């Protein structure tokens, strides 16, 4: 039965208003806060938020064709500078420089190629170790390939003379010298692969070295004609051969790569790490295949990339972010964006038809 008081009007007095208590407003904290860059939340709001590192502009100094080209130029010039004082322009009189010039140039080019990549990655220990290993290899291959190049050059010149090319002004002679110089380019690429512990890297290096050294060798005689011969012409000619060999190695290696990491942000922004080995280590230890420096949060061996057939798997020992989540293992897909400390990587694969 309804209460008769239910229909009575509700009365609020001044005393009621004065005694009312208004509750304090509750602050609402957003799940994510805009900082000018995209941020990806997680289901667990207590988890550490993923803060993407904006892509940075890469330096030309970190491009393979550039630093290998500079390495070849410096190595060739160093070999020339050491041997030139003992070199004489005479077919009847030979001095020590005549015997050591080409092997020494090849040796120091190999030495420079071996050190170049580790040097730009700021890994002084690895650069020094690779340089020490490259010196004896380069010296042995320098004398061997010098012997082979002389045979090839002799055959080429005989063919040129029989075909009527009797002067060094004839382009056929330039081609013969370029073919002989291809042998020296092969030596540089071979040592580059051996030091990198990769047959594929050596294969790419040999192809690039052969192409680059061949092109550089063909301009050797035109330079000698233009500069009237002598020490200056040899310096310029050998420098261009070394430069062309390194640039050729870098361009071919980049063109034929099939799996690689591109550094989008961090101190190595713009560098690409080609994945040659079945096991690639990433960490703050200088001997790591991918050495990450200037970040105390990166472990000595922070992660490992393992390649088994067509599968490329990441195994993390420290924090690695993918799509806003910390992952321990992941089968990498083309285009994956990974973040390790202050470094951001894009994993890339070459698509085959």
What would you note in describing this structure?
The protein is of the alpha+beta class and 353 residues long. 39% of the residues are buried. Residues 24-50 have low confidence and may be disordered. The chain has eight helices and eleven strands.
Which secondary structure elements does this structure contain, and how are they paired or packed?
Elements: H1 14-19, H2 64-83, H3 96-120, H4 124-162, H5 171-195, H6 199-218, H7 220-227, H8 231-256, E1 259-265, E2 272-274, E3 279-283, E4 290-291, E5 303-308, E6 311-316, E7 321-322, E8 325-326, E9 329-331, E10 337-340, E11 343-349
Helix pairs in contact: 2-3, 2-8, 3-4, 3-5, 4-5, 5-6, 5-8, 6-8, 7-8
Strand content: 5-15%
Helical segment count: 8
Structural class: alpha+beta
| Euclidean distance between termini CA atoms | 84 Å
Largest sheet: 6 strands, antiparallel
Low-pLDDT runs? 24-50
Shape estimate: elongated
The percent range for helix content is 40-55%
Instruction: Round the mean pLDDT to the nearest integer and report it.
Output: 85
Query: What string gives the helices and strands in order?
Result: HHHHHHHHEEEEEEEEEEE
Total strand segments: 11
Rg: 32 Å
For the largest beta sheet, what order do the strands appear in spatially? 2-1-11-10-7-8
């Amino acid at each position: 039965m309804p209460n008769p008081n239910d229909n009575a009007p509700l009365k609020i007095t001044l005393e009621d208003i004065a005694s009312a208590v208004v509750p304090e407003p509750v602050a609402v904290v957003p799940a994510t806060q805009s900082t000018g860059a995209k941020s990806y939340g997680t289901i667990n709001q207590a988890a550490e938020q993923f803060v993407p590192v904006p892509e940075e502009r890469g330096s030309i100094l970190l491009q393979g064709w550039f630093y290998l080209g500079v390495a070849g130029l410096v190595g060739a010039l160093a070999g020339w500078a050491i041997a030139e004082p003992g070199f004489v322009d005479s077919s009847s009189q030979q001095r020590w420089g005549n015997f050591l010039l080409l092997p020494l140039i090849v040796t120091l080019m190999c030495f420079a190629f071996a050190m170049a990549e580790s040097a730009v990655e700021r890994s002084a220990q690895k650069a020094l170790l690779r340089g020490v290993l490259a010196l004896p290899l380069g010296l042995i291959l320098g004398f061997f390939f010098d012997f082979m190049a002389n045979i090839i050059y002799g055959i080429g010149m005989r063919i040129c003379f029989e075909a009527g090319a009797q002067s060094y002004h004839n382009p056929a002679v330039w081609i013969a010298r370029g073919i002989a110089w291809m042998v020296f380019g092969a030596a540089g690429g071979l040592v580059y692969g051996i030091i990198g512990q990769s047959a594929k890297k050596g294969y790419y290096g040999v192809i690039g070295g052969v192409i680059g050294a061949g092109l550089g060798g063909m301009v050797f005689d035109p330079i000698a004609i233009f500069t009237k011969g002598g020490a200056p012409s040899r310096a310029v000619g050998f420098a261009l051969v070394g430069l062309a060999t390194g640039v050729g190695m870098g361009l071919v290696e980049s063109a034929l790569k099939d799996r690689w990491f591109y550094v989008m942000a961090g101190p190595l922004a713009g560098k690409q790490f080609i994945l040659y080995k079945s096991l690639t280590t990433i960490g703050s230890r200088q001997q790591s295949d991918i050495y990450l420096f200037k970040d105390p949060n990166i472990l000595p061996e922070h992660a490992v990339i393992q390649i088994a057939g067509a599968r490329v798997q990441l195994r993390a020992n420290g924090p690695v972010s993918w799509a806003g989540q910390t992952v321990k293992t992941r089968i990498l897909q083309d285009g994956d964006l990974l973040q390790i400390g202050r470094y951001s990587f894009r994993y890339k694969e070459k698509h085959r038809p």
